[in-house]
Amino acid sequence: MATRGDFVAFDLETTGLSPKSDRVLEIGAVRFDATMRRVGELEVIVDPGVPIPLAVQRLCGITEADVAGAPAPVEGVAQLADFCADAELVAHGAGFDVTFCAGLVPGAFSGRRVLDTLELARILLPTAPSHSLPLLSAAIGIEHLRPHRALSDASATQLLFARLRAAAQALPVGVLAQMRGVAAQAGGELGLFFTAVVDGVGDPQRRAWAGASRAAPPPPPPTGPPPADLVAAATALLGAGVPPRMAGEGFELREAQLEMTRAVAQTLQRRRRLIVEAGTGVGKSLAYLLPLALHSRSGRRAVVATRTITLQEQLMERDLPMVETLVGAPIPAALLKGRNHQLSLRRWQRFLGSADAGPHGPDLDRVRFKLKLLAWLAETEQGDRSELHLNGSEETLWRHVESDGGDCLGAACANWQSNRCFMVAARRTAEAASIVITNHALLLADAAAGGQTLGEHEALVIDEAHHLEAAATEQLGINLRAFDVLVVLDRLGPTEGELEAALSSAREATVRLFGDVKGRIGEVLGSDHSGNATVGVSREVRDAHGHAILLRSAEHATARWRAAALHLRDPELAGAMQIDLLPQPDRADQERFLAATALDELAAAVERVLLRPRPGHVAWLALRAEQGELHEAPVTVADALRESVFTRAETVIATSATLAVGGDFGFTRDRLGLDDADELLLNSPYDFLAQALCILPSDVPSYDEPDHDRAVASLVGDTAERLGGSTLALFTGYNPLRRVHALLAQRMEASGIALLGQGLDGTRRQILGSFLANRRTVLLGTSSFWEGIDVPGDALRCVVIAKLPFAVPTDPLVKARTESLSDPFGQYVLPQAVLRLRQGFGRLIRHGTDRGVVVLCDERLRSREYGERFLAALPPAAVVTMPVADVGDAVAGFVLHQRVPITTRMSASGRQSEQDHPMHEDPA
Questions:
Q1: Are the CB atoms for 429 and 217 separated by under 8 Å?
Q2: Does the annotation list 282 as a binding residue?
């Protein structure tokens, strides 16, 4: 029954984000009835009684003069209380606004129900690129004339609320009924919205999408034989002139790109192996895709494996269409991700039917996740999780519903038989493709499984190849948490009697084991460690007295898991399961056997880490977000790559922007097992001498001295103020990032420059989006920002690198990989750090018109002999040394006025020469 009362959408603007220390600045509200018709508005500016931060004044447009003589916040909120009397409240991000209101007028707002359009939008618009009110309004065509003004935000919230109700009412009949059932269990605001606000039964003409439900694509039409001379054909197509369509997209042929195209074509013809370093701007994707497209005309298949989904999607959506333009014919290509990217309809049905009870009432995270996926499944055609934006808790919940080889009925699954399975549909599409774009993880998993997924392929291109060793290490190793075991023990739903006793005992043993892992880490490291820590299971650690407790827990847990597996296989205990809750009750025996097999494999994994360590492998305990973990990995992956990955293709090409150390590919060859590969090193076509400057501050203390953070903060602050933002600072860990963030916060606030810290001010995607959207921003990032981000133009004009990115010397994997080397530092630690630094430097110049400065704050570049190795490996930019106090002016002079400081210039050999003039004009 639809509610017939009024609603009030409201919004507050405040001086900051803390209800304890910040104040209300402006109130806006819109009252509307059950038909979504507006019946009134409220707009009140209040005097917060404290200074308005400059950044807030610029964001909202409200100045000190605007609030002079205005009522106090409590008076304004009292007006809002009168305005929304007897109405249901609506807000976007409701918790923020209602907390401020309840602090001022608790009688009207404490405990008051608020319908949150942010929560509802995440459920009903699950594929929207952003759910922030301004961006979402723009994306779906809602008028929002004055973002960050209270009345405009309230008005946009009212329009969004109406749109969300309409979206719910337009859902397929069966889907809306299911969502009402799930929401009713939760009660509260979600129950109110779906059972009272949303009326009708849904759209009877719209069919719920029941899975892939599509046939495999037909084989591609023949496009003629491959050219007799692949090299000549490929280079002729690329060098014949830029087609108008590609010219319109900004394509520009470069000699280095033509050279790489020629080398790839030669390698394909000769069926050899090739390592190619192609600097930023070479255009390596097109350089290998064009020869592959011509090579595949004879029915030969190729696989392209990348590390990131971003690059996979770029290849499919941008680069392959360009190749089709060049060759004048469609290219049968498919994007194939790991199966865990696809939702399993069977596992989803089982999860949907599971209870949502938490320790203190309904588990709202589970309820929201179920509602979100119900709405998503009514529209998705791929079942690909990348269409969704999953937060931290949802990432964990996805594990319950993702396609999982250890929980798959295969051909016995009803969704497989009816061709509704998303994973099967994706793989059938890939089977018909000449070029398959995939990721490193799936490439490695497929090799381990004998090629069942990717099938036969004559050519293999590994892009982002500098990550292949890490991907292989993870794929061939073990990473185990309590959740991995509990999700298996709990996936069959309620059980009874002897079976439930065995499963319960296994759960208790699981909790005990991973609790003892956490305790053992505390014993080894003492209390002086954060919530994240690592302890190698070395001989010394194993022989210590305290380790016996952990070993007993491991023996107990593996015994309990195997006992539970035996009970699951026992046919006499089959009746202890409520099989009517399973998606296919007739396959209950197979469900039990799959769970039993998974438990046996988990027991074997624990034995490998703790009880029976294997030669050639290293094991360690880890603590992540206060949760214990068990790990094991091979010391070297080169042999495995050589034998199981590279031998499956006639031609192997490994490419990246960073594979050589000082022009030498030896490190990459050794780590990947590409001993017999040809080499090609192509420098970036960008003019780094004109476009980039490298500064070495001469007086930054060593990173382990107390004043190091203060010097870095001072340098970043000076630079950001002179550039008006546009600054990225890279750190090797979260602790120094947090310290510099704290030192900079007040200064950046006073300067009207936004300060964003990874892990402090939002997710990686959120803060990167904010950085791209507003030049007046400083971003502090750690490991994931050293590469894989593309910030062209004025948005990024200075990169500050706080410390050289050496691997942590106590890391168990690093120790294991270096202990047999005659020169561990020179043969492993140093080259790895050089490649990493090159990635960080590479964030700066992304296009031919970019201009910027990299500031390297590690004094070891000047004081240690190996500093020359780092500098020699960097792009050929001018390198200058100067005091911290001069860096801000030098950065601004180079970026804004094309002045190159030459007070002290350091050559690649490390020699310094004094110059008479502090600055000169760059002819560029």
A1: yes
A2: yes
Q: What is the mean pLDDT of residues 300-327?
A: 91
Output the six-digit token pair for 329.
């014919």
Same domain, yes or no: 77 and 154: yes
**What's the pLDDT band for 914 if we cut at 50, 70, 90?**
very low
Q: Which one, of 850, 909, 851, 849, lies nearest residue 879 by Cα?
A: 909
Give the residue from 600, 619, 634 where a domain finishes. Answer: 634
Percentage of the chain exceeding pLDDT 70:
93
Q: What is the pTM of this model?
A: 0.88
Q: Is 46 annotated as a binding residue?
A: no
Q: Do 765 and 892 belong together in one domain?
A: yes
Could you give the CA distance from residue 179 to residue 70 in angstroms, rounded to a whole number? 46
Quick one: how many helices (H) and strands (E) in the chain?
A: 40, 29
Based on the structure, what is the number of domains in the chain? 5
Task: Count how many Cα atoms sit within 13 Å of the Cα of residue 593 in the half-sphere of its side chain.
Answer: 7
DSSP H helices, 607-707, are: 638-640, 666-672, 688-691
Domain region containing 174: 7-197
The verdict on 56 and 134 lying in the same domain is yes
Kindly report the average pLDDT of the chain as a whole number: 90
Q: Name, in order, each residue with C-beta under 8 angstroms of 434's C-beta and a sequence gap of 6 or more.
A: 220, 293, 296, 299, 300, 301, 302, 331, 332, 333
First to last CA, the chain: 71
Q: Residue 223: is its pLDDT beyond 70?
A: no
Tokens found for residue 315 = 């290849």
Q: Is residue 455 situated within a structural domain?
A: no
Report how far residue 367's alpha carbon sits from residue 356's, in angstroms, rounded to the nearest whole number.
7
Q: Is the Cβ–Cβ distance between 39 and 31 less than 8 Å?
A: yes
Report whether pLDDT(287) > 50. yes
Strand bridging mode 904-906 / 7-14: unpaired
Looking at residue 908, its pLDDT comes to: 41
Q: Give yes or no: residues 805 and 776 share one domain.
A: yes
- What's the CATH code of the domain at 912? 3.40.50.300
pLDDT band at residue 904 using 50, 70 and 90 as cut-offs: very low
Whether residue 450 is contained in a domain is answered as no
Instruction: Report if residue 381 sits inside a domain.
Output: yes
Q: Which residues pair with 777 in a beta bridge?
A: 754
Q: d(Cα 264, Cα 258) in Å, to the nearest integer?
A: 10
The reply to whether 453 falls in a domain is no
279 known ligand binder = yes
Closest CA to 739 of 716, 718, 768, 767: 716
For residues 693 and 900, the answer to whether their CB atoms sit within 8 Å is yes
Give the mean pLDDT of 634-658: 95
Residues 780, 912 within the same domain:
yes
Q: What is the pLDDT of residue 762?
A: 72
Q: Is 337 annotated as a binding residue?
A: no
Domain check: are 266 and 403 in the same one?
Answer: no
Give me 377's structure tokens.
């499944």
The response to whether 383 counts as a known ligand-binding position is no
CA distance 530 to 816: 24
Tokens of 19: 């209800």
Indicate whether 768 and 717 sit together in one domain: yes
For residues 299 and 346, state if they share a domain: no
d(CA 75, CA 101) in angstroms, rounded, equals 11
Residue 31 pairs in a beta bridge with: 8, 40
Phi, psi of 121 (to 5 degrees): -65, -40
Instruction: Please indicate if the annotation marks 900 as binding a ligand.
Output: no
* DSSP 8-state class, residue 51: P
